[in-house]
Amino acid sequence: MKKHFVNLNRIAATHKGNPLQAFALGILQEFFNYAKPAEHITAFDEFCRAALKEKYCWHRGSPANALYYSERLELLIEAAYLLYIKPPKHPVHFKKHTILLSAMNKEYANPSHFLTYFFSQASLKKWKTWLQAFTHAAIAKGSAADEMKAVDIYVFVESVKQLLCAAALIADARNQ
C-alpha cells in the first residue's frame, strides 16, 4: 500500500487524502474539460518537440506553462494507473469515435484493454521518470535523447499519445 503513495504523489498533492481513494474518472473528465483530445495531442506533440531539440524551444508561453502541462500529464498517467489497478465495477460503453480509435493501435482499440497494455510496457515509476526527463529537457537547452534510449523515447511518445486517446474515450463514456 505504501508503494502506491510514493508513486501517486501528484494525485496526493492535488487531491487531498488517500490517493487510492481518488476518483480517477473525475480526474480524467477534468483533464478533458480543460481541452479537447485533439488539442491535448497537439500540445503533447509540441511538448515532445521542445524536449527533443538540442536548444530551448518551448513556444507555449513561459517555462512554467511546460511545468504545468507536465503536471497535468502526470495526473493523467496516475489516474490511468488507478483505473488499471481498480477497474470500474460497471462496464464502460464507448460511443464510436473514429478519430480517436483510428489513432490507437487496432489491437488495443478498447481503452480498458489499452491500460493493461500501457502498464505492461513500463511501470508507473518508469512512465513518470520518462515524463520527468521530457519535462526537464523541454525547459532546458538539452534534449531528452541525452537521457533516454531511442526505443524508450519512441515508446513514451507513441504510448502517451494513445493514452490521451484512450483516456478521452473513458472520460467521454462516463459523461454519457
Care to describe what's here?
- With 176 residues, the protein is mostly helical.
- It contains nine helices and no strands.
Instruction: Give the total of beta strands.
Output: 0
Terminal residue distance: 33 Å
What share of residues is helical? 55-70%
Overall geometry: globular
Main beta-sheet strand count, sense and barrel state: none
- Low-pLDDT runs: 96-101
As a whole number of angstroms, the C-alpha radius of gyration is 16 Å
**Mean pLDDT, as a whole number?**
81
Order of helices and strands: HHHHHHHHH
Q: How would the blueprint of this fold be written?
A:
Blueprint: H1 2-7, H2 9-14, H3 24-34, H4 37-52, H5 63-85, H6 98-103, H7 111-121, H8 124-138, H9 150-175
Question: What can be said about this structure in brief?
Answer:
The protein contains nine helices and no strands. It has 176 residues and is mostly helical.
